[in-house]
Amino acid sequence: MCGIIAYIGKRLCRNIVLEGLSRLEYRGYDSAGFVCIDNNHKHLSFHKEAGGIAPVQRLSEAVKFDGYAGMGHTRWATHGIVDQRNAHPHFNCKKSIAVVHNGIVESYEELRQELIHRGHVFSSTTDTEVVAHLLSDLIDHHSDLKSALLDLTKHIRGAYAFIFLVEQYPETLIVVRHRSPMVVGLGDGENFVASDFIAFSDKTNKVVFLPDDSIALLSKDALELYSFEGKALPYSPQQIDQTYSDIDKDGFEHFMLKEIYEQKRAINRTIAFCKVIGSYNDEVGNPSSDITLQPHPATEYNDSVWRQIGLTKDKVKNLRYINIISAGTSWHASRIAQFFFEHLCGIPTRVYLASEFRYMPFFTEPNSIYIMVSQSGETADTLEALRLINSLEQHTIAITNVASSTMVREASGFLPMQAGPEISVASTKAFSTQVATMYWLANRMALERGTITAEQMHTSEEDLFIAAEILEASIEIYKFKIMQELAPRYARYDRFIFLGRHVSYPFAMEAALKLKEISYIFAQCYPAGELKHGPIALIDEKTPAVLFSVLDELIYRKLVSNAQSVKARKGHLIVFAFEGQHELIDIADCAFILPRVAPLLAPLAMAGLMQFFVYHITRQLGLPIDKPRNLAKSVTVE
Ligand code: G6P
Questions:
Q1: Within a domain: residue 470?
Q2: Is residue 443 part of a domain?
Q3: Are residue 317 and residue 389 in the same domain, yes or no?
Q4: 382 Cα nearest atom in ligand 1
Q5: Is residue 248 part of a domain?
Q6: Which atom of ligand 1 is nearest to the CA of 434?
Q7: In this structure, are residues 455 and 301 in contact, taking their beta carbons and an 8 Å threshold?
Q8: Whole domain around residue 297: which residue ranges?
Q9: Nearest residue CA, atom 2 of ligand 1?
Q10: Confidence label for 499 from pLDDT (cuts 50, 70 and 90)
């Protein structure tokens, strides 16, 4: 999974490509490369940087050559270790064909053996390089470029978006796409292509999202589009009114910290948006129109939200099952939302990890919906699950933060979160706005189904605003204690156990994920009730147990017993509790105490403080918080 951008046109391309590349680093930052048809000698010139922090930055400083057609790549390693040889672009033996790639070539091993047998010499251990060698043979064997490309698609299995620069065709950028997204930007005497619109969003907003299984030949003035059968494909450019506001840290040391503090506003914006969605009457399902969507005040709940997500009132009333599919932090938000849909609407809800869902038996049930939850709207596992469900003609709804994403385009309906761009790899405000969006949706469904009243619906909206308030206020209360005392103390431990029950169990999983992904400290999460079935053996004074409370009285009592069993084994106990929960607070070695909220919103209220705590533990360790090792923001490979 990687970021790619290419340019062809009237301007020299180096700065355009390198700047675009820096906006794509969220897709991977293991290494970076640039290649162009060199303006001086008309051959391909390239430079690659690998490893360390900020390879794109180093690339920008190192590249001195330039040209009118060029491309860049930022890598998240799948096949082949992170080193300079494996950084993209890759080449054929004569270095007359360069390729950058996002995706995985599954058939690469057999192709590689075949090509070696035919005398090709490989310079890397990636799956991508085979494609450059293969295309070179195919160009030699075919009378024209198009037939060579059509033939190429027949040899490659997997998911891919390739861009090729071929010395023999210096006026053309060649794009081949299967499964992985690609967007062309049409300019005046210049054209762009990238794996994400934001890479060139300041240069043009006239775009063509390349259809699946297509080949694009892009010159400075024209775009030719073909299917894998060789048929010319019509296209009509769309206008996207979304700009890449040059995101900076606004004085914060890291994006993660800035995004933690942005949560209150992001949640409020999300709820305000949901509240007024009723007055939105534009073409439902058209992502580009949604990007400029401006909420208007509305006082009554109407049907527009159902049209937005592709349902009708009657369908909502008759819903029998809700299925939610997601990955990573989005999966934790979905697991929390399961409680919302079940408790508030009385609809059985199942939550699946996207990477598992695709390989499980699929039972179509009448009156079911499938909600895909994804910050980026591009995660390969979730996207492929969406495609599978679509192919079985079931109803899909995308809840994402990126209104121009592939999931939004492909789902039957969508509901955008209003978190704004999330840059830090560790998700914070996307998580809290996902939780808020699904809480609102579950309440709205409950209202439609008559399990709550309009007054209760209003109260739930107020509860969301209150939870957002607490999320931020609790950080302020504990800020100095965390920074000066707690973070230095807990950064010394090398393993933690996280515990929760009911709605706080998926939240504890999210907390454990946050800690391990940015601090590299080992963190294991268990439902507190399972402690006695094995994990209690891990309890000792060197392994702090972090326990997240709930507001349901009965479950709270059970949690207190679990906490006592930790203390009885001389465990070190940290609790996130609510006011008045003395039994828990009194036995803890460290207690964070928050004001009470609506019981199901306990995780939302605790989110900011938990993230802030983890952030500062990591800061003590001096690690690259926004770009942790081995990770990427958007995982567009399986
Ligand atoms: C990556 C990110 C996580 C994210 C997950 C799912 O692993 O690092 O922060 O939760 O992908 O991404 P999505 O965009 O589908 O929510």
A1: no
A2: yes
A3: yes
A4: 15
A5: no
A6: 16
A7: no
A8: 253-452
A9: 633
A10: very high
Instruction: Specify the DSSP class assigned to residue 96.
Output: -
- Is residue 305 scored above 70 in pLDDT? yes
Q: 265 and 406 share a domain?
A: yes
Is the Cβ–Cβ distance between 525 and 499 less than 8 Å?
A: yes
Asked if 330 and 434 sit in the same domain, the reply is: yes
149 and 23 housed in the same domain: yes
Residues in the chain, overall count: 638
- How many angstroms is it from 256 CA to the middle of ligand 1? 14
* Closest C-alpha among 492, 544, 501, 497 to residue 519: 492
Mean pLDDT of 250-271: 93
How many Å lie between the centroid of ligand 1 and the Cα of residue 398? 15
Q: Is 633 a catalytic residue?
A: yes
Active-site hit among 264, 514, 516, 633: 633
Looking at the structure, tell me whether residues 417 and 486 fall in a common domain.
no
Query: What CATH number does residue 199 fall under?
Result: 3.60.20.10
Share of the chain above pLDDT 90, in %: 74
Number of domains composing the chain: 3
Mean pLDDT of 515-531: 96
Query: H helices then E strands: how many in the chain?
Result: 21, 24
Phi first, then psi: what are they for 352, rounded to 5°? -120, 145
Q: Tell me: do 308 and 212 sit in the same domain.
A: no
Mean pLDDT of 128-149: 96
Q: How far apart are CA 402 and CA 69, in angstroms?
A: 29
CATH number at residue 616: 3.40.50.10490
Question: Which among 357, 423, 635, 637 is the best mutation to test ligand 1's pocket, defined by most ligand atoms within 8 Å of the CB?
Answer: 635
Same domain (yes/no): 446, 550: no
Tell whether 386 and 417 lie within a shared domain: yes
- By most ligand atoms within 8 Å of CB, the mutation choice from 375, 399, 513, 517 for ligand 1 is 375
Residue 312 clears pLDDT 80, i.e. is over it: yes
Pocket test for ligand 1, best of 78, 196, 330 (most atoms within 8 A of CB): 330
Rounded Cα–Cα distance for residues 372 and 395 (Å)? 11
Nearest CA to 301 among 447, 446, 442, 415? 447
Which one of the listed residues 2, 13, 345, 525 is annotated catalytic? 2
Using CB distances shorter than 6 Å, the residues near ligand 1 are: 327-330, 374-376, 379, 382, 425, 427, 631, 633-635
* pLDDT score, position 292: 37
- For residue 458, is it within any domain? no
| Residue type for position 33 | G
Query: Could you give the CA distance from residue 324 to residue 350 in angstroms, rounded to a whole number?
Result: 6
Q: Which range has the worst mean pLDDT, 15-19, 413-417, 506-510?
A: 413-417
**Contact status, residue 403 vs residue 308, Cβ threshold 8 Å:** no
* Active site annotation includes 2: yes
Of 87-96, 280-289, 470-479, 500-509, the one with minimum mean pLDDT is: 280-289
Reported confidence tier of residue 242, pLDDT bands at 50, 70, 90: low
> At residue 228, does pLDDT exceed 90?
yes
Q: Give residue 328 CA to ligand 1 midpoint distance, Å.
A: 5
| Local confidence band at 294 (pLDDT 50, 70, 90 cut-offs) | very low
The neighbour count for residue 386, using CB atoms within 10 Å, is 25
